[in-house]
Amino acid sequence: MTDTQQTWSETESARYRAAGHWQGVTFGTRLRRAAAGHGGRVALVDGDRRWTYAELDTEADRVAGGLRGLGIGRGDRVVVQLPNCAEFVFIWFGLQRLGAVPVHAMPGHRNREMGHLVRVAEAVACVVPDRHARFDHRELMHEVWAEQGPGGSLRHVVVVGDPGPDPGFVPFEALRAEPPSTSTSTSGSGSGSDDGGADPGDVALLLLSGGTTGLPKLIPRTHDDYAYNARACAQVCALDSETVYLAVLPIGFNFTFACPGVLGTLMAGGTVVVAPDPSPQTAFALVEREGVTLTSLTPPLVPHWTDEAASGSWDLGSLTLVQVGGARLPEDQARTLGPALGVTVQQVFGMAEGLINLTRLDDPEDLVCATQGRPVSPDDEVLVVDSEGRPVPDGTPGELLTRGPYTLRGYYRAEEHNRTAFTPDGYYRSGDVVRRLPTGHLVVVGRIKDQINRGGEKIAAVEVEEQLLTHPAITAAALVGVPDERWGERSVAFVVCAGAAPGAREVAAHLKERGLAGYKTPDEIVRVPGLPLTAVGKVDKAALAQELLRR
């Protein structure tokens, strides 16, 4: 690995290889082998379009040939900002065939984030749609290109769809113009390289940190560690060649792509179906048509899915497992989701930086509904520590520290941040506050920074939010701390309501009845039509706080 502050030690690397976690195979080669083993099986479905494994392998070759014609090669970084579509998969594997590095941008990113990613990654190209969600990404790329100036790294913009009149924008279809026989290699001939000479320990992709404030940091993931990430999750989820995975959340999101997601499904020989939007109507129609067996959601989608399922107009019989992650799923919702959809619910607590925790398919209901799972690898190392870095007993809240065979040892080109983000012996300081049970399952209490200090009393926002959601009129809630002369900070609850909004007194009485301490009752209730989200689908509390300060 390069461009990180720390790497795995030789001893650790040897241990992970000996355990079979790191298999020494690049993603370009993995796709080639999948095509050889599952050639005629359907690998990918996008609307009316579908590709077998052999056809997906050929598409990767064709795209690699076009990218190679642009001068893109091993180690080059390419920012990929595409919505859910098959082209994301083609580009991703095409880059792997060259040993190049996709940088996973979110469709909602705009000038500030995209310019930052290009600068930090020194990206040589960006891949964007023409328009998505009524936004013109070509105009965005004009701005990014202009701001980097003549000495910038960016040389190419590839557009999926209409590139417009700018001769500097390359249409995606032009990348596929060369016949496969003249590309980097073909599945038929077996000529050329499967991975551009990449090493399994090379950085294979750059993910983005999922924080709710500031610009995202880049997370380097190697071929070895990221393949194990997907494979370990696939094993826990019992994926096989009959699995049909529905990508509902943004495809570039780590949860959707490799937990087990797209990669885990393809590595198991299953089928990936791409959903163009996360609405239950779109998703349920695809479940019916394609026989979907597995999908992944974030908590804000859950009530919409359960409400739609209650209509009784959909056949969801093929769907057996629904993962929920990205934020803590309130226990009441966890208990209703399974019966509402007729599925097994799996809670997921993980991070793009590495560690993934899943509830198991045979866990008792109380563990599934009240915890966020346990680590997927026997070599995941987890510490729960106090503010002084001392381990705390099971059941006591503390910060989660972790290291292991798929957890990073340093952010990309962030030496200063790495000095505080990792312990001297390589543990990643997650910033998550958890309680660990004797079973190894973790209960997410909140974030170190998602805590309100009200006159010396510490309030964990996630605890209050979960209790607010038990009020029958409240469908979504976010608790935010804002400066206050008397208390230092006061708490404001932003709530989305079905029908009339409850008043502050009604909310206080409800929370008291639920057993919540009086000081945790929100000082103010603000009704909003919806909660703003970050590009990775988490509630944007910074935006809510700024809105309060502007009032």
Automatic annotation (TrEMBL):
<feature type="region of interest" description="Disordered">
    <location>
        <begin position="174"/>
        <end position="203"/>
    </location>
</feature>
<feature type="domain" description="AMP-binding enzyme C-terminal">
    <location>
        <begin position="463"/>
        <end position="538"/>
    </location>
</feature>
<dbReference type="GO" id="GO:0016878">
    <property type="term" value="F:acid-thiol ligase activity"/>
</dbReference>
<dbReference type="InterPro" id="IPR025110">
    <property type="entry name" value="AMP-bd_C"/>
</dbReference>
<keyword id="KW-0067">ATP-binding</keyword>
<feature type="domain" description="AMP-dependent synthetase/ligase">
    <location>
        <begin position="31"/>
        <end position="412"/>
    </location>
</feature>
<protein>
    <submittedName>
        <fullName>Hydroxybenzoate-AMP ligase</fullName>
    </submittedName>
</protein>
<dbReference type="InterPro" id="IPR045851">
    <property type="entry name" value="AMP-bd_C_sf"/>
</dbReference>
<dbReference type="Pfam" id="PF00501">
    <property type="entry name" value="AMP-binding"/>
</dbReference>
<dbReference type="GO" id="GO:0005524">
    <property type="term" value="F:ATP binding"/>
</dbReference>
<dbReference type="Pfam" id="PF13193">
    <property type="entry name" value="AMP-binding_C"/>
</dbReference>
<keyword id="KW-0436">Ligase</keyword>
<dbReference type="InterPro" id="IPR000873">
    <property type="entry name" value="AMP-dep_synth/lig_dom"/>
</dbReference>
<dbReference type="InterPro" id="IPR020845">
    <property type="entry name" value="AMP-binding_CS"/>
</dbReference>
<dbReference type="InterPro" id="IPR050237">
    <property type="entry name" value="ATP-dep_AMP-bd_enzyme"/>
</dbReference>
<feature type="compositionally biased region" description="Low complexity">
    <location>
        <begin position="179"/>
        <end position="188"/>
    </location>
</feature>
<keyword id="KW-0547">Nucleotide-binding</keyword>
<feature type="compositionally biased region" description="Gly residues">
    <location>
        <begin position="189"/>
        <end position="199"/>
    </location>
</feature>
